[in-house]
Write a structure and sequence with these properties.
Order of helices and strands: HEHEEEEEHEEEEE
Radius of gyration: 29 Å
Number of helices: 3
Largest sheet: 9 strands, antiparallel
Distance between the termini: 113 Å
Strand content: 25-35%
Helix content: 25-40%
Number of strands: 11
Shape: globular
Number of domains: 2
Strand order of the largest sheet: 1-7-8-9-10-2-3-4-5
Length: 206
């Protein structure tokens, strides 16, 4: 019969030690997974919650982010900057790069009762609208401050906005989409790329 040497580790003790080591390692992995998952859920909930960002103090750029076409510049020379405007950026071919974008703009002049539409800087239509009996306050922004698919940081730099409200869109509507509101400005982002801009006119009663 074989006898155990007093210096040899007891087999039962060794198994218990190994079990404790495995259990301890599994616990650490579980805790790490909980922390990572919790952080993901908190971040996801934060991104899906309406919130206000303020005190941004961006360094406003004096350089235009878009160069007006000759037709647009002529319109401004004759009428002044639009009292309100909307800009849509879209791709006819989804496989094209982000540098291949169509720019559709509508410029509104409420005081004279006219609206102009430009596609990639070319005047494609001019319509008469009902002129307002209210004084229109100057919009704070110009069309050349916005370029196709610009990032939020670039937009803050181009406009100098100090505060805005973020409203995340439901994934069923636009995946990774947000609508943001600032003073006299609403704009839509998708994957941190500008897709839509609306500069909103303010009026005061005469």
């Amino acid at each position: 019969m074989n006898r155990k040497n007093g210096n040899e580790p007891d087999a039962t003790h060794k198994k218990n030690h190994d079990f404790k080591f495995i259990a301890g390692g599994g616990l650490l992995i579980f805790i790490f997974a909980v922390v990572v998952l919790g952080g993901f859920l908190i971040r996801n909930a934060y991104l899906q919650t309406p919130r206000i960002e303020k005190n941004l103090f961006p360094q406003k750029s004096s350089e235009p982010f878009y160069h007006l076409s000759p037709a647009q510049q002529q319109c401004i020379d004759e009428r002044g900057y639009p009292e309100a405007f909307t800009i849509y950026f879209y791709q006819i071919n989804p496989d094209e790069g982000y540098d291949q974008a169509t720019r559709s703009e509508t410029w509104n002049y409420y005081s004279t009762g006219s609206t102009l539409t430009f596609i990639d800087g070319e005047l494609v239509s001019q319509e008469t609208i009902e002129s307002t009996s209210f004084n229109t306050l100057p919009v704070l922004y110009h069309p050349e401050q916005f370029s196709a698919f610009m990032s939020l940081d670039m937009l803050k730099m181009s406009t100098g906005i100090q505060e805005f409200l973020i409203l995340p869109l439901e994934p069923e509507i636009v995946q990774d989409g947000q609508v943001l509101y600032a003073e006299q400005l609403a704009f839509g982002m998708k994957n941190n790329r500008l897709m839509y801009v609306e500069a909103i006119a303010l009026t005061e009663e005469q």
